[in-house]
Amino acid sequence: MKKRELNKKNYLSEGRRLSNAGRYPGAIVNLTRVISLDRNCFEAYHLRGMAHFNLGNYEKAIEDLGQAIEIFSGDPKLYNIRGLCFYATKNYGLAAVDFTNAIALNPTNEDYYIHRGMTCTDLGDYEQALKDFNKVQELNPNSPVPYYHRGKLYVEMKDFSTALAELDTALGINKEYLDARRMRGTIFYLTHRYKQAIKELNQVLNVDDNDDTAYFYRGLAHYRREHFYWAIDDLTHAARTHSDFVEIFKYRGMAHEMVGEEEEATADFLTANELDKNS
C-alpha cells in the first residue's frame, strides 16, 4: 500500500474513533488531513460535518454535508442533519427543502416529518405543518410527540383551547412529558391564568430545576401576581441561558423598581435597551 493511501486510512480510522468518542476537535483535525489527501472521500466529509454539527459550527457543517451529498445523494440522514443546521441558522426555506428530500428517501421516519413540521410552523405554513404532525401520529399512534407539536402549532395560531386539548392528550399518554407540561404553563400565562401557570411550571421545575424557559414564564406569572421578589429570582435563573432576551431584563427591571431597588432596575433597563437596539 502506498504511503499516501496508508496515511489516509490511518487518519480516517483515527477521525472515526475520535468522532465515536465525542472528541470532535481532534476528529476534525484528522478528517481534514484525510480530505487534503482525497477530495472525494465521502466518509471524511460526512464525519467532519457531523463533528461540526455537534460542536454547533453549523455553517461549516452545512459546507461539509453539502460536499458529502454531492458525492452520494442517497443518504436521508445527511439531508436531515443539514436541514437541522439550516433550521438552527434560521434558514427555514432551505431547511424545509432538505427535510423534504430526507422524507422522499425514507418516508417512514417520524423525525423527518417532525422537523419539517417545526420548520413549516416557523414559516407560517400551518396547513403543511399540521399534515406532517398528523403523519407522525399515523406512523406511531401511541406517541405523545405529535400531540405536543400540534399543541405548539395551535399556540402559534392563537387557538389556545385546542392547543390545551392536544397537550392534555400528550400528557395522558406520558404524564412525565415535561415539554408538554411547560407548554401548558406557557398557555396559562398567555391566557392570564397566572396561578395555574405557576402551578404547572412548578411541576416542571420540581423535575428539572435547570429549565430556564419554565423559570422565565413562572417569573412573568409571579410579576403579574405582584410577587416581585419571586419574579426577580425566577428571571435571574432564566437569564443564565436567555441572556439575549429583552423581556427578561425588562420585567426584572420593573420588579426591582417595584421593590425600591433603583440601582438594579436601572442596570436591567439599560441592558434591555442595548439588547433591543441590537436585535
In short:
The protein is mostly helical and 279 residues long. The protein has helices at residues 3-20, 24-37, 42-55, 58-71, 76-88, 92-105, 110-123, 126-139, 145-156, 160-173, 178-190, 194-207, 212-224, 228-238, 246-258, 262-278. The protein is built from 16 helices and no strands.
Write the layout of secondary structure elements.
Elements: H1 3-20, H2 24-37, H3 42-55, H4 58-71, H5 76-88, H6 92-105, H7 110-123, H8 126-139, H9 145-156, H10 160-173, H11 178-190, H12 194-207, H13 212-224, H14 228-238, H15 246-258, H16 262-278
Helix pairs in contact: 1-2, 1-3, 2-3, 3-4, 4-5, 5-6, 6-7, 7-8, 7-9, 8-9, 9-10, 9-11, 10-11, 11-12, 11-13, 12-13, 13-14, 14-15, 15-16
Characterization of this structure:
The chain is an all-alpha fold and 279 residues long. It is 80% helix and 0% strand. The protein is built from 16 helices and no strands. The longest helix has 18 residues, at 3-20. The protein is globular. The model has no long low-confidence stretch (mean pLDDT 96).
Unreliable spans are: none
Tally of alpha and pi helices: 16
**Class inferred from helices and paired strands:** mainly alpha
Total DSSP E strands: 0
Report, as a whole number of angstroms, the end-to-end distance: 56 Å
What is the overall shape? globular
Q: How would a crystallographer describe the biggest sheet?
A: none
Q: Hey, roughly how much beta strand do the residues contain?
A: under 5%
Helical residue percent? over 70%
Order of helices and strands: HHHHHHHHHHHHHHHH
Average of per-residue pLDDT values: 96
